[in-house]
Amino acid sequence: MPETDRSIDLHAHTTASDGDHTPTQLVEKAAQIGLTALAITDHDTTAGIPEALEAGRRIGLEIVPGIELSVEYANGQCHILGLLIDPENRTLPERLREIQHNRATRNARIVERMRTEYGLDVTLDEIKEVAGGKIVARPHFAKVLLAKGYVSTMQEAFDEYLAEGAKAYVPKDTLSSAEAIALIHRAGGVAVLAHPNNLKRDVEETEAEIRRMQSEGLDGIEARYSKHAPEDNTHYLALAERLGLLTSGGSDFHGPSVRPEVALGQVENIGQEGPRVPAPVALLAALKIAQRPQPR
User: Fold this and answer.
1) Block means of pLDDT (10 residues each) for the chain, length 296 residues?
2) Residue 242: CATH number of its domain
3) Is 36 part of a structural domain of the chain?
4) Which has the closest alpha carbon to 183: 44, 15, 38?
């Protein structure tokens, strides 16, 4: 494939989530390095897409509206990319706002149960102080319970109050792979498993998980990825062909303060010693064929 046909990056982040560049800055950078298409795939938000689309129209760069959804499944967490989503479809943003609200209120609900149902003298301010400005999590609750003598060990705090099914446990609102895929489809997009090596399973288990998600409607896998070795790309391209899945390719660019080792547009190696290059244009054409236009 000629180098001129390698000019897209279908996985990049802006300041709308955890990237260093504003949407406009990222689009300008993509144009400067010669990309012809760029996907904006911020974590669990579509907030950066309108600005990116406007910058793309002004500069003459195709912007692929996207998102990277955090998904809980039986063996842990993974990420699913939604590519070519309809930026005017409200189903996906509304569900994400609901999840964010529920997560924000979860800690208060745990404290309320501890205080009203079990008479524990704990406050959310105390727990936030223990967290030290970081995201409040259950270990911070456990430390407060331990410090106040309500439990004798951290493990007892979890067993008695914080573990799933324990006295003060409140379920975390998360997306399953099935719900994430359905949301992407309802938004008119194509659902692609991001960086499949991050499943951290052996070859057989990884394939089993991909097959399971395929049964839920998964459209493709990110076979070409900036942190894949050439043999990883080869493996996932062959796997996708065997399973009848589409493939995508992205750098997962965030910026120098987050991932300094990952450069925009540097998606895959051509051979063991070759430089990393963008993904081929043909990937985007195939993904567009699989789009699901949705009535608004």
Assistant:
1) 77 92 98 98 93 98 96 86 94 89 88 96 94 80 96 95 93 91 96 95 94 97 95 96 98 92 92 82 96 63
2) 3.20.20.140
3) yes
4) 44
Give the residue carrying structure tokens 């180098």.
3
Domain count, the chain: 2
Contact between residue 119 and residue 113 where contact means Cβ atoms under 8 Å apart? no
pLDDT reported for residue 172: 80
Amino acid at the residue 220: G
The parent domain of residue 157 ranges over 101-162
Looking up tokens 């998980």 gives 209
Please state, in angstroms and rounded to a whole number, the distance separating the CA atoms of residues 79 and 172: 17
Give yes or no: residues 73 and 206 share one domain. Answer: yes
The reported pLDDT for the residue numbered 209 is 95
Place of tokens 């910026």: 255
d(CA 207, CA 203): 6
CA quadruple 100, 173, 128, 119: dihedral sign: positive
Q: Is 238 exposed, middle or buried (0-12, 13-18, 19+ CB in 10 A)?
A: exposed
Lookup result for tokens 């965030």: 254
**Does one domain contain both 217 and 140?**
no
Q: What is the pTM of this model?
A: 0.83
How long, in residues, is the chain?
296
Are residues 204 and 78 part of one domain?
yes
Nearest to 27, CA basis, from 45, 47, 46, 12: 12
DSSP 3: G
CB atoms within 10 A of CB 124: 16
Do 136 and 27 share a domain, yes or no? no
